[in-house]
């Protein structure tokens, strides 16, 4: 159940970030593709997010200072931080005008 919840949070957070930030306001319709794969032998789930939005590598995003109280922290960045901490691996590349992010979780 823990892995399922972590995957749910990761998908929700990453898709929300694409929806909210990948496409500048007034720039038309945004698109995102989500792919899913399960390697039974490795017991590993892979989820890939692909969009044609603004290039953004979440692996290089600044981590929030979680030692500060919520009132003293800067807004933003906590969702990506949680995804980084709960997934077993993350891979980002920018290819053919697309952001491609793959997260993996062993179950």
What does this structure look like?
It is globular, with a radius of gyration of 15 Å. It has two helices and four strands, in the order H-E-E-H-E-E. The chain has one domain (2-23, 31-106): 2-Layer Sandwich (Heat Shock Protein 90), CATH 3.30.565.10. The chain has 107 residues and is an alpha+beta fold. 27% of the residues lie in helices and 30% in strands. The protein has a four-stranded antiparallel sheet with strand order 1-2-4-3, covered by helices on one side. The N and C termini lie close together (10 Å).
How would you summarize the topology of this molecule?
Elements: H1 2-21, E1 32-39, E2 44-51, H2 78-86, E3 89-95, E4 98-106
Antiparallel strand pairs: 1-2, 2-4, 3-4
Helix pairs in contact: 1-2
Mean pLDDT: 88
CATH topology type: Heat Shock Protein 90
Structural class of the secondary structure composition?
A: alpha+beta
- How many independent structural domains? 1
Bin the strand percentage: 25-35%
- The CA-CA distance between the termini, in Å, is 10 Å
Low-pLDDT runs of 5+ residues are: none
CATH superfamily heading: Histidine kinase-like ATPase, C-terminal domain
Give me the Rg, rounded.
Answer: 15 Å
Sheet with the most strands?
4 strands, antiparallel
CATH classification class = Alpha Beta
The level of helicity is 25-40%
Q: Count the DSSP helices.
A: 2
- Supply the CATH architecture: 2-Layer Sandwich
Total number of strands: 4
Q: What characteristic shape results from the CA principal axes?
A: globular
What order do the SSEs take from the amino end to the carboxyl end, as H and E? HEEHEE
Major beta sheet, strand line-up: 1-2-4-3
């Amino acid at each position: 159940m823990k892995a399922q919840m972590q995957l749910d949070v990761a998908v929700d957070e990453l898709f929300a970030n694409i929806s909210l930030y990948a496409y500048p306001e007034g720039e038309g319709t945004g698109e995102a593709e989500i792919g899913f794969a399960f390697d039974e032998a490795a017991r590993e789930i892979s989820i890939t997010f692909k969009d044609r939005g603004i290039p953004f590598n979440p692996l290089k995003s600044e981590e929030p200072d979680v030692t500060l109280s919520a009132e003293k922290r800067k807004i933003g960045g906590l969702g990506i931080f949680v995804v980084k901490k709960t997934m077993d691996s993350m891979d980002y590349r920018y290819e053919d005008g697309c952001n491609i992010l793959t997260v993996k979780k062993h179950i």
